[in-house]
Amino acid sequence: MAERLIGLKIRTARRGASLTQAQLAARAGISASYLNLIEGNKRPIGGALLDRLAAGLGIQRSSLDGGAERRIVESLTEAASDPALAAAPTSPESAEELVGRHPQWVDLILRLYRAYRHERQTVMALADRLNRDPFIGDSVHRMLTSVTAIRSAAEILGDTAALRDEERDRFVSVIATDSQNLSATARALLSFFENPNVRVRAATPMEHLDAFMFEMDNHFPTLESAADALRAHCRSGESVEAAAERIAGSSEEIPGDRRADAVEAWESRRFRMVRGAASAVAGAEARRLVENHAALGSDEARQMAMSALLNYVAGAALMPYEPFLTAANEMRYDLDRLSRLFGVSYEQASHRLATLHRPGAEGVRFAFMRSDPSGYVTKRLPLARLPLPRYGTACPLWPIYRAFQTPGVTVAGFGELPSKDRFLFFARAVEKSPPAAASPRHILSVMLACSVSEADHVVYADGIDRASAMIPVGTVCRLCPRAACAHRQEAPLVA
Amino acid sequence: MKARILIVEDDPNIGESLDFILRRAEFDVELVTDGAVALDRIRHQAYAAVILDIMLPGMNGFDLLRAVRADQQLAAVPIIVLTAKGQENDRRTAEAIGASVFITKPFSNAEIVERIRELTGA
After folding, report:
1. What residues contact A421, with CB distance under 8 A and at least 6 apart?
2. What is the ipTM of this complex?
3. What global pTM score does this model have?
4. In chain B, which among 51-70 make CB contacts under 8 A with chain A?
């Protein structure tokens, strides 16, 4: 589609810049008549000439060659393939036409779709909360217990068989105490539902943090700006970590040689240095985001969220949004190349990829999950159709666990959930810090997953035959209906 | 000789009612509130039937049921599981593990006595 519309885009951009064909042709070193053929899509264009025309128009080549539009067409196609919206048949060609001719309408459609998806996620989270909330479950159990005791005692009292006085007193007392218990439980339940924060009530600070990140789509535009401001403090030739140290007021000398620091990995130290300045440049904004947010229902949750947001700022300062997104697209999300280019660790780059959700400039949408060797999930950012476990382990077939067998090597694979949604998973076990003598190595597995519809953009899908390598997987064993799975660890709760 | 019934129920009021109605129905009754204690009793004493609540502190009803069914000498003991209405998952799980009969809370006393009589032939 990009090729078909490129002439139209050049013409539109030229008119927008108030240039005549002759003026632009002169800047690009071609004749006006040849430019006319290009604008009329009668001549193919690419390579150096396209660069010269883009330079002549004062715009990025990517806005002419359709790289951005390609992603928008894919987003539109994804929206159209949503089962809830798939009533009317659409074709990829018509999507391209729409994107080329009516970009503002497409933007509106995608905004609506994103809003719909967000609301749907919220509804699912609410349903999940109502089904699983330990308070509700416990209350219902206590009410049923009281009702059972009252009914049984009432039947004994109502029986015609004679009761001794002390037996009668005892069962009357049961009815009295359990009636009071029943009332107290009912009142507590009423208070629970009247609480305006009930929709985001979570049992642990980690769940509060999950709900917060989920609601914010793990993307914070004001913190991206704060990170840009931190970078703007860099003097000529000064690295961002050196500027950060200066801002944070530390007198610690910055090693010029990465090998000099044998105790802490250079990337970790660099991150820590920038993190030190994050609270100076973004502390107030992070506090504003955290305070009074309905999802964060405890001081501990707010502290965790503050820490997560300052880490976010450090990540954004080391991996600025636009250059990182551009590099990610060019390098097809190759984490080794990205981490080398930005001087960050594999894990830091992975986490950053899961934050590229700026409306209109989105990267591939990834779920992120980090686990220790025991299966404990230490960080999680789910996708709409790929729920990640809060507690316990995920499906043992996910590469996040296989990666522990070969630390430092990326393990990739395709998986199909029982819902028929398909994903590309890739994971690597990374060492958090060099081990002290005789101490166990601290290894964590970091996994990213994206929809199979976006897998072509990701280098880790290369060379894997989707038809033969699509493994039936689940999410959590107890919720997975694949009864015959050889890897089953728990009985399924669903048929 | 009276048939011996073990009640495993941690709520004292429900436990007392069950104990009362079964004694009045001419059964020999023992009442315990803890899953681990119940397992020990079942291993050392023959019972005509066990009434088992699922929600117990420590070793829950599922764990107890699994342990009993895993023991060849105990596997035939009839076990009535008390499940709460609406908690179908509990019921399915208990059925898969080997519960003999389910009774839904809140139950009627007559139903309890009738099912115990059916199971024990008493």
Report:
1. A385, A386, A451
2. 0.90
3. 0.50
4. 55
